[in-house]
Amino acid sequence: MAITLKSGYKMPIVGLGVWRMEGKDIKDLLINAIKIGYRHFDCAADYQNEAEVGEALAEAFQTGIVKREDLFITTKLWNSDHGHVLEACKDSLKKLRLDYLDLYLVHFPIATKHTGVGTTSSALGEDGVLDIDTTISLETTWHGMENLVSLGLVRSIGISNYDIFLTRDCLAYSKVKPAVNQIETHPYFQRESLVKFCQKHDICVTAHTPLGGAAANTEWFGSVSCLEDPALKGLAEKYNKTVAQVILRWGIQRNTVVIPKSSKLERLQENFNVLDFELTKEDMDLIKSLDRNYRTNQPAKFWGIDLYA
Q: Structurally, how many domains does the chain consist of?
């Protein structure tokens, strides 16, 4: 299954996120994922593993497991590179060993102090607060993104972690409209209004953290995962599926793209097998009732400032 983006290209509705994948394990994980059937991979300069992903992709192409045109590869512009969009994109392409990206996203709607293309440190001021660059507007950044499309380096461009106000502004100043808004959304953080707004304006919503962060966000942010929710466990028993499969299926039936991350082969297989069943309207409504407006991924822990405030 795939969603046709505003740009006309098709984006597989299930992808694999590579955040926090360790370099030494990435090649085997990605090769196995491709063999399972994954064709969509979500990367970012900030994940600091584009070079390892590139090695895996090169091996997959060279051995004939898959062709470049069969894959949908996303990566993202880091905060410190808003004033260096072209150079940052070329750096990611070089590391990923690709001639073009299927999707390039503005990772966060904030420009920070430039620390050098290819580096993704979050510079903090003496006060411990993120060193935000107030001289670079999001409009300027977006026009840099549009230039990548003109140059043929990127097929589709989009945004990430944008709210309704910022998304509306992007629609107003853009010549090439954003094809995607990648946001945290899961049963405990459904963000129905933002999802509706994006979809009304033909912006595909990709759900990062679609399982509520699971163990990773519990470790980093001390958050609670919806994977332990009794109601979701009950639905998993009803459908003879895992809780994760039920949650991912719910995301798909919301017409959102889901990009769960897993480093375990068994989970990779499970997360991909979510197209052979369908949740009833009653069960979709049940999950809708679980919303807590609960964000699990909160970078304020590292940045000294809540950008969502």
A: 1
**pLDDT of 267 strictly over 80:** yes
186 annotated as a binding-site residue: no
- The mean per-residue pLDDT over the stretch 192-203 comes to 98
- The encoded tokens of residue 46 equal 């900030």
Q: What does the pLDDT read at residue 223? A: 67
**Cα–Cα distances in Å, from 268 out to 37, 245, 305?**
10, 11, 34
Is residue 143 pLDDT above 90, yes or no? yes
Which of 38, 47, 104, 188 is labelled catalytic?
A: 47
> How much is the average pLDDT of 30-50?
95
Distance CA(41)–CA(268), nearest Å, equals: 12
Q: Can you give the residue range of the structural domain that contains 21?
A: 2-303
User: Beta partners for 42?
Assistant: 17, 74
pLDDT band at 127 (very low <50, low <70, confident <90, very high): very high
**Residue 38 appears among annotated catalytic residues:** no
Q: Give the pLDDT confidence score for residue 104 in this predicted structure.
A: 98
Full 3-state SS string of the chain? CEEECCCCCEEECECEECCCCCHHHHHHHHHHHHHHCCCEEECCHHHCCHHHHHHHHHHHHHCCCCCHHHCEEEEEECHHHCCCHHHHHHHHHHHHCCCCEEEEEECCCCCECCCCCCCCCCCECCCCCECECCCCCHHHHHHHHHHHHHCCCEEEEEEECCCHHHHHHHHHHCCCCCCEEEEECECCECCHHHHHHHHHCCCEEEEECCCCCHHHHHHHHCCCCHHHCHHHHHHHHHHCCCHHHHHHHHHHHCCCEECCCCCCHHHHHHHHCCCCCCCCHHHHHHHHCCCCCCCCCCCHHHHCCCCCC
309 within a domain of the structure (yes/no): no
Domain of residue 111, CATH code: 3.20.20.100
